[in-house]
Amino acid sequence: MDSSWKSRLGAGRRGWKRGPAGVHRQAQSELCGVGGGGGGGRAAVGAQPGAKQLAPSFQLRRAAWSEDAENGEAEEVVTQDEKQLLNTPATLKCSLQSSQEVLVVTWQKKKAVSPENMVTFSKNHGVVVQPAYKDKLNITQLGLQNSTITFWNTTLEDEGCYMCLFNTFGSGKISGTSCLTLYVQPIVSLHYKFFEDHLNITCSATARPAPVISWKVAGSGIENSTESLSHPNGTTSVTSVLHVKDPKTQVGKEVICQVLHLGKVMDFRQTMNKGFWFSVPLLLSIVSLVILLILISILLYWKRHRNQDRECQRNCFGFSQL
Predict the structure, then answer these.
(1) Taking Cα atoms as reference points, which of 256, 131, 263, 135 lies closest to residue 201?
(2) Residue 209 pLDDT greater than 90, yes or no
(3) What own/partner pairs with CB < 8 Å and gap ≥ 24 does 217-225 have?
(4) How far apart are CA 77 and CA 48, in angstroms?
(5) What are the pLDDT digits (tens) for 45-66?
(6) Domain map of the chain by residue range?
(7) Which CATH superfamily is domain 76-183 in?
(8) Identical fold at 76-183 and 195-271?
(9) CATH number for the domain whose boundaries are 195-271
């Protein structure tokens, strides 16, 4: 009887310890966009009585638990990933969802070898920014349970993941991770050019991350080629060219260049204007005819002027004889 009771108690404890990890795996699966395990992850959250519902206002949140906690309560840290326009201010938030006494809040940047301290906050020392980050960021929400850092003007070096560490009294360090992604809105150009035997329609888009270009065009005999070029400022230019073998089939028709960037599709439309299309032989014929007419006009003018000079000479000579 006693051993059976202990066995059930041990199983209950093991199941309880797996609860936070199960919820943590659910948060990780949502982060990575894993669709197959979505149902199982939701079931795990629903089966955990102590798990807290993530607020719907957050687009993407993480939950973490202290490995040092020994009192049996999951210490949840809620963070939010951010996407921000490059060269603009950006904020990262971190919130400790427990009543633990926090002594110091530390923000670190994750790096390949080891995390790098950026800024700390405590009641005794206030805000302390490391020299390498003095002109880049600061803690803009002075709290021990809720902390916010703000980058004054984001650069490419600021993109990455950051850790907020809550140093608590009696429970050790409790951490959460928030990632910052920087983007540049697409700059798009769409133009076309008629040739003697083909038509080229070019759509170019420069953005960060790299955009994806697709087309909506009617007709046959159309080939597509795409090239990408990376720039030092972190943007990528993607150029897509449609090669139309029979240009006359596209005169007066509309072509749509679709640019996909950060999940949003933008349409750019262009109508193939007949006024911009010329047949090279026809153009040469027109130019030749104009030149010929000019030469004939010059020749006629010269002959007329010469005849007038001769007539004047005869008249003048006749008067002199008289």
Answers:
(1) 256
(2) yes
(3) 217/242, 217/250, 217/253, 217/255, 217/256, 218/253, 219/244, 219/246, 219/249, 219/250, 219/253, 221/245, 221/246, 221/249
(4) 17
(5) 333 333 333 333 334 455 554 4
(6) 76-183, 195-271
(7) Immunoglobulins (2.60.40.10)
(8) yes
(9) 2.60.40.10
